[in-house]
Hints:
The protein has helices spanning 12-34, 39-50, 59-84. By secondary structure, the protein is an all-alpha fold.
Amino acid sequence: MKRAKAHGAKNKNILALYNKLTDLVGNLAELVDIQELTDTIILQMSTLAVAPFFVENISELQLNALKLVTRVRNVQCSYTVFIHSMPDVFCPRDSGPMVLHFAYG
Length: 105
């Protein structure tokens, strides 16, 4: 059975929602650079940023999601650098490196 392919948005409301969601993800990417956020918020943003890559025909949203993933990754790397620069009292070297792992999904 063949599926009919949609050529554009069927409804103006869906298109408006898509545009607002695209803007929201782009603004979240900018927020990561501007504001220091908690780990919980970073985890939620990473989950939101990865989801669009599993859907076809939403290239603008995927581009903004890629920006968000990149910036969240930069935050994760800065946390890792901070933890490795801590004195041995806080981060004993014999127990192996402490690395923050963010779960996606």
